[in-house]
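This section describes the prediction task in plain terms. A model, or a person checking by hand, is given the sequence of a single protein chain and must write out its three-dimensional structure as a string of tokens. No templates, partner chains or ligands are provided. The sample shown here is typical of the held-out split.
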Amino acid sequence: MVVDSALKTQGRVIYALMMREVHTIYGSSRLGYLWALIDTMTSVVIFWTLREIMGFRPPHGMPILFFLLAGFCLFSIFRGTVNKCMNAVSGNKALLTFPQVTPLDLMIGRMVVLWGKEIVSALILLIVAALLGIYFQVSNFAVLVFTLFIPALLGLGVGMTCHAINTYFPVTEKIVSIILRIMFFTSGVFFSISRFPSYVMDYVWWNPMIQIIEMCRMSISAGYRAMPYSVLYLCSCTAVFLCLGLLLERHVRGKRR
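The expected answer:
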């Protein structure tokens, strides 16, 4: 009963933080929510248009929109979650005066809001594509669901870890920003790793985001052939970063007081 009551209280706290996040960032104007979705979709639409004009065709006959959408959506979830977690405490120090609110609650609330925004934006683009006569067929629903959730959890773990390290070494935030920019161009957002020779794939395979993006593309295109991937490796990476992040976050709480 005590555990159940604590979970309910924690759930209400996270929900309240989510609503605060939504209203603070997106609710400053009547078009705030709409603009948040448009801003997310803009990059995909721009690259979609440019690729169509240039006559680019993704491998295995996959429509360009779905190819780009998988890359942009999943990487945006990961990158956005890392950034949100790193800045969660510095932007909400006043809330931590309430005993019910913890830094972890702030990070989870921000992660869920960001994840929801990216998913809704992707759904809108899929509806637009359907109106234009472009359809996709889910070839593996279980893999699709896995790839939609794992970037957020991985980003949460990495974000917590980087936030804790940044507490002692403030330069960490700048270094992480540079690394995320490099990852944006090397995680298969714009290209398929299947076109690279095997000796290159042996190295890039260790980037979990490449595996996640390629898995997602395979799950929404029956003819798409993804690189060899490992669910065990992705789950292990996520679990390691989550455990490390939780331990470090707990360790640095005393330093912030």
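For orientation: The chain is about 75% helix and 0% strand.
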